[in-house]
Structures are given as C-alpha cells and as structure tokens.
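Field reference: sequence -> structure
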Amino acid sequence: MASDAGRKQFWKRNVSRVPGSIQHVYGAQHPPFDPLLHGTLKPGSKPPTTPVKLKKVSTFQEFESNTSDAWDAGDDDDELLAMAAESLNTDVVMETAHRVIRNHSKLQERHKLQEGQVVEKESPPQIPDLPPAVCGDSRLVKSVSDSNTASSADSSSENASMPRSQSLPQSSAVALVGKVADNNTLGGLVLSEREASRLDKFRQLLAGPNTNLEELRKLSWSGIPKPVRPITWKLLSGYLPANVDRREGTLQRKRKEYFAFVEQYYDSRNEEAHQATYRQIHMDIPRMSPEALIHQPKVTEIFERILFIWAIRHPASGYVQGINDLVTPFFVVFSCEYAEEEEVENFDVSSLPAEALQNIEADSFWCMSKLLDGIQDNYTFAQPGIQKKVKMLEELVSRINEQVHRHLEQHEVKYLQFAFRWMNNLLTREVPLRCTIRLWDTYQSEPEGFSHFHLYVCAAFLVRWKKEILEEKDFQELLMFLQNLPTMHWENEDISVLLAEAYRLKFAFADAPNHYKR
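Structure field:
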C-alpha cells in the first residue's frame, strides 16, 4: 500500500515544483490563476481501450500535431502514426522526437540548396521547404486545427479526398495561386504557396463571428503570418474578445482608459516620490535595441509613458530593468498595421498619423500588462521568480546534458551569471528582434508560455551551443561566449528547431517534476 501511494504521489503533478509556477503577489493585479493540468499514465499500466478514455493517452498525437509546422512532414509519417497507437514511455518519445528533429535539419539543408536556384517570374510560387515525399505521397498526418476549417469550394474531388496538414497547402500550386492571388503579396514580395495557404487558414479562422481561440492557438504555434499577427496577438493575449462584434467597442474603451491613466499619472513623474522611477526609465530606453527605432524621439516618448504608467499602477513591483525590453515586440508588431515597410524597426515612426501612434501605444501597454500579469514575481523585490527559474534551469540541464553541466561547474561558471538575463528579458537580447517575434508567436500559443514553456526554451537554447561550450577552457572566455551568443544571423527556421526541442523537453519532464531532483 505504501509503495502504491508513493507511486501515485510521484506521478501526481505538484504545481509548486513545476518551473515557472506563479505565486500570487500581494498588491499586484493578477487575473484568476488557472494552472495547466497534465494527464499521465501510471507506471506499468496499459492504455484504456474504451473510446471515452482515449483522449487521456493521446499525448503523443497532440505532441506531433501541435508542432507539425515546426518541421515538415517527412518519410516517417507512417511510423509516427504507428508509434502513436502504442503505449508510450519516455524512451519512445525521446527517440521519435530526435528522429523528427534530425529529419527537419536535413530538410533545412535541402532548402538552402534550393534557394540558390533561379526561378522564372512567370512560374507559380514554389515550395522550397517541402521534401519530395510530400508531393508524391498523399498519406499526410491530419492536423487537429483543420477540423473546423472549411474546405475550398473550388477544390477538385481528388483534392477533397486527401487529408490536409496544418503545415501544408491542400491543393495544387496553380489552384492555390488562383484562389489567393489578391492577398498573397506583401510589400511587393510574392508569398510561397505554403505561406499563402497558412495565411488563408488564419483569415478563415478569424473571419467567423466567434473566433475559436483553441484552434487559433494550435495554428499559431508554428508561427503567425505577418498580415494577421497584430489581431492574433491581441486575441491570444486576452486583450480582445473572441466575439467579432465586441472587438471595436473593446478597443475604443481600453484606448480611452489608457490615455485617462496618462492624463492622471504622467505629470507626477516630476514629483519627488516618482523621480527615481522615471529617471531609471529615461536612462534604460536609449540602451535598448534596435537603435534605429528606439532612438527616434517619438518612440522614446511613447516608451517612457508606457513604462511609467505601468510602474505607477503596479506598486508591488514598480519598474525593474528588463521590463523595458518587453515593450518592443508589441510596439513593432502593432506598427505593422499602419506601416507598409518590410522592416518596421527601421521605419520613421513620426510619419504615421497621430491617431495611429496613439492606438499603437495603448495596445502595446495593455498587451504588455497582460504578459507581465503572468510573470510579475520575476520583478518583485529580490526577483524570486527569476531566482527560482534559474535554479530549475540548472537542474534540468544537469539531467538532459550532464556533460555541459559538468563543464560549467568545472570552470566555476554559475547559471545566474548568464541565465538571469535570459529569464529577465525573455531572450529578447539573445536573439534578433525578428526571431523574438517568432518566438513569442509560440509563447502566446502555449499555456503559460512566458512563465513555464520559456524554461524549456532556455534549456534547449543552452544545449544548442554544446560544441562551442565544451571547446572553451577558460572561465572568462566561456562566460563571454554565453553572454554574447552568435545569433545575429538566426532566422525563423532556427527558432522552429529550438522550439521543437523545447517541446520535446517539456513533454518528457513537465508531468514528472520529481525528475528535476537528484
């Protein structure tokens, strides 16, 4: 009996031990906290055979379908389907996920070779990132997110009978180009067939009277197309309601409410009680990136207002260095609604109408506030949330890659010396802004993405540099490398692989928090 009770306790998820779990902060404005629930099997038990219980043991199916866009379908689809029907264990999951990631890496190399080829202007958009198996094999893994997506009315009967994948277009190149010819061009650049297909799926999902947020999260996990990213972020962050008829009224009310705060509080920045807060904000903003955007006087003014108003309204934490970096992704994404330039971070913001700038400012404030509500213990006194997560990261890395962990220990490199910034700034200073935005697409799609999933991303990010870390034999050089990782040329494909590895780690460890313990 005692051993049975022990096993039950082992598999029962202890929320307090799961990385990123949030303790309510007195005085902070927390929404009702709904912790993520995980279902697991007892050791040695068999998966139930009744249809009612099937959902409890479909973890691997959810893993494969939820991340289907993190890698393209390969030759191992049939094998994956067979694996999903078997009783799962950690070894099976690890082996399968490793194989899929390796296939994806090989495909990415093939993409780069294909990108060097010259394509005639008259030819339809190509699909440089699809393996040959996709074109010749109709046995594709059907995505859960497509269950509520309407089929194209002009698709042929042959195409209608073929299962669709979340990451793949449903019809031939010619048919798809004809269907989305009016909306598959961005800034004069023609979208690939795959990009146009994904954009069409998003638009269909967002066009309904009540957006299915669960389906939107599944579709957004593997990246959100730029034209629909602003509205999608507002929905996923909880800023806008799912009902289309209520959105405009909500926007007007929240924007008016924000500027009422500005009128009420912003003049107090010169008062003695708030001078230190405003001075710190004023000093931190010029240190942000991208410099071409941040150093514009209009942008500096907007950021100062957003950060000061947030600090005044959250006295439990106030302003803390690092919060300033969390405004930039929202500001850049919401600017895309009004700026046609491909690179918004280099855009002259002062050329936008005053009303557009006010809308961008208010929307950025509210979405940043929603984000911080879930990680506010990162910024309270002594930043206990970050301290806890860095410790969790150290224990996780010691489990998944002991060689890297021992190497850091041997050279007396403390995780707090490099990972503190990873947690404090959510990797915004470790990867380019374009990659941060892609990363946040997934964070907003994941339950507790910024507080819980971020830990696994940091672990995968550290292990990603295993070869370079092991080559460094000096404390100073090792620490310098970890604080200045060479990610300048990273693109969305690099983030996709990182996220796939992070999801594998979460799948293996999240339901068994005792695996962190030695």
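Note: The chain has a mean pLDDT of 76.
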